[in-house]
Structure prediction request, 240 residues.
Amino acid sequence: MLDMMSKIIDIMSNEFYFPITILFGVTSMLPRERFAWVWVTALVVVFGTYFTVVGIQQSQATPSFVARMGTLAIALGSLGIIAGVTHLIIRLGNARHEAAVPDERDHLIEWRAASVAYYVLMAGMVLVGCVMPFGNSTWNMVHMALLTIAIAEIAHHGMIVLGYRRGWHA
Amino acid sequence: MPERRLTNNIRTLRFLAEEMTQAELGKRVGVTRQTIAAVEAGKYSPTLECAFRIAEVFGKPLDEVFGWES
Prediction:
């Protein structure tokens, strides 16, 4: 029964990518892929919320330094907690997992994902460091740098997921 | 240049080796079960070293395990 359920969830997660099944390990996904899924989802949700809040704050009045830092601290703190809890759950669930040590395919997927993320980060940093200083406020630059980091991280882990789902023809 | 792709007979060879599981093959080769599944499905082309190790497990020459077809 459990085996059949696991197979059904596996098919469903392959088709619909349920983050909950991914997090709690009811799939045949590798721990690394599982973490990538959770991290991409967390980044989109947390930074999506953060930039929405920042947009609302700025449209009403110029927020104080403390308010800005508070919002930023909540966003980064949430990400830290999500990363910590996810690592803990996955580690506990895979204490004796065969895939505890990455193999050649894992390294290749990681290498390709990191290459893509590097170029995303470079493009964003060129924009922040070379274009934005001419006519933008300091906080706009800070937000753009944060957005660049978030997009680069999403690209990195998104490419990891894609690498595991679609495969790489080396 | 015509497009060619790597093919393999791993599924058949596993069957002939008393239905060896992907996990067991992976363990003997030194990769994960998911990597063996990806190789079998043609989603991942293994390194030459990994390909030789797979062939070695089945006691076959490389060209009996892997093919290069158009």
Residues 90 and 96 of chain A are 11 Å apart (CA to CA). Helices of chain A lie at 2-16, 19-23, 31-60, 65-93, 104-131, 138-166.
